[in-house]
Write a structure and sequence with these properties.
By secondary structure, the chain is an alpha/beta fold. Helices cover 31% and strands 22% of the residues. The protein contains 13 helices and 18 strands. Helix 3 (76-94) crosses helix 10 and helix 5 (128-137) crosses helix 6 (154-162). The longest helix is centred in the N-terminal third of the chain and has 27 residues, at 2-28. The chain is globular and about 70 Å long. The N and C termini lie far apart (63 Å).
Length: 430
């Protein structure tokens, strides 16, 4: 009898361990829900590199959306072309992990977002992409939807405008900097109307991914391709078409953040950077022109307001342009004889501007400004007040790479994330 009881107890223990192991494995298999908004196909081909990286790690996530948001030539076709390459390499990838997604499932969640920047009010009309963000955000789930924004934030702004109730269902990681410059109006709308959004605003930290001055020789941007990528699979053969294979991938830190570390706490270390909670976002308002002694925060919002004739035209009509650093920015009619434009400098700089318009009062206006580090700096009366879940680049001087704030919080992990990716390149045949 004692032997019989021992046997029963032994079986019970085995059953308990089996069930515990199953439960533990189920927990391990929970994959983050992600939706990527990308300006792939635009003027910067680093999104192609980042898309290859994403597809090579596609088994680690529930990819719920791939949204094309490009103000240049990019469309969903650019995303579909990358999925085609992935499909050709899929059999090799599946030898090492069986749960890579079906290419047709990825094609089904590829959606077209806006092709235009937002006007001064910060939104236009709904798009297939913005509607898809809403649909995914409203899906019943115990997890938040991670919205990883690699380009303009216009489709996120549109989704929040059309369905403000999704604000607490999404977590946004935005590669800002130059994208904030081009998307200043959409950003301003979100910061003013949705300050309680969960947001990582990465204006400079991401540059630690490709500023490789501190890297070992074999991991520098111009040698990694030859050492680990060249000739490996269809995606490896395509990689050389972007920057001749030199690693940039400035948007990949958003994905790496969800891959590694504690995504619920941006103040801790991760491959995608370490951030600080911020209570305000810097904004400077000029009534008329600014001068060389006017300082603003780099990555902050700058607004210039001018008086002119009262016109019987729609608000947000473009009535003038402002040229800053050889780039042209639209200026809008706000009504009641008031005209304005927005801008955000992508780095500390000294710059000048000049306006052009058929309206005499708005033509030939000139001015200058100096943008300084660190962002967002000391709170000013015009700044946007933010909620409890908005995070930005760490301002610590010892975490700068040159003038790029917080970049060392990514570059310090360069060996770890690039060598992890190198293992996946080995999965593909030469």
């Amino acid at each position: 009898m004692s032997g019989y009881l021992f046997g029963l107890r032994f079986i019970a223990i085995l059953f308990f361990l089996f069930m515990y192991g199953c439960e533990e494995n189920q927990q391990e298999k929970i994959k983050p829900r992600i939706l990527v908004s990308t300006d792939i196909g635009g003027t910067d081909p680093d999104d192609n590199q980042s898309m290859i990286h994403l597809l090579m790690y596609a088994n680690e996530f529930q990819i719920e959306g791939l949204v094309s948001t490009s103000f240049q030539t990019g469309t969903t076709q650019n995303i579909l072309e990358m999925i085609d390459l992935y499909e050709k390499d899929l059999s090799e990838l599946k030898k090492h992990a069986s749960d890579f997604p079906n290419p047709n499932d990825l094609r089904a969640v590829t959606k077209q977002g806006t092709k235009k920047g937002a006007p001064f009010r910060g939104y236009r009309e709904s798009t297939e992409g913005s509607n898809w963000i809403i649909k995914c955000a409203k899906k019943q789930s115990n997890q938040p939807l991670w919205v990883l924004v690699w380009g303009g934030i216009e489709d996120v702004a549109q989704a929040l405008h059309d369905a403000p109730e999704i604000e607490d269902k999404i977590r946004v990681y935005w590669i800002g900097g130059p994208n904030k410059k081009w998307g200043a109006n959409a950003y301003a709308y979100i910061a003013e109307n949705h300050p309680n959004l969960w947001m990582i605003e990465n204006n400079a930290t991401y540059r630690g991914w490709f500023m490789d001055s501190e890297s070992p020789e074999n991991l520098k941007g111009d040698t990694y391709f030859a050492n680990y990528i060249k000739g490996r699979g269809h995606m490896g053969k395509d990689f050389v078409n972007y920057y001749d294979g030199r690693i940039k991938m400035g948007d990949t830190p958003s994905l790496a953040y969800v891959m590694n570390g504690k995504p619920d706490d941006p103040t801790t270390e991760s491959w995608g950077g370490e951030f600080i909670k911020i209570s305000h976002s810097s904004r400077t308002i000029f009534q008329g022109n600014s001068r060389i002694n006017d300082t603003v925060k780099a990555y902050g919002i700058q607004e210039w307001y001018f008086k002119g004739p009262e016109l019987d035209i729609s608000q947000d009509s473009v009535c003038f342009t402002m040229e800053i650093s050889k780039q042209i920015w639209p200026g809008y009619y706000l009504g009641n004889g008031v005209y304005a434009t927005r801008y955000s400098s992508k780095k500390p700089e000294t710059a000048s501007y000049k306006t052009s318009s058929a309206i005499p009062e708005l033509d030939g206006q000139t001015g200058q400004y100096v943008s300084i580090k660190s962002w967002p700096g000391k709170k000013d009366k015009d700044d946007y007040t933010l909620g409890d879940n908005w995070y930005g680049d760490r301002p610590d001087e010892d975490l700068f790479l040159k003038d790029q704030q917080g970049a060392k919080t990514v570059s310090k992990h360069r060996k770890a994330f690039l060598m992890d990716w190198a293992k996946r390149w080995k999965w593909l045949n030469n």
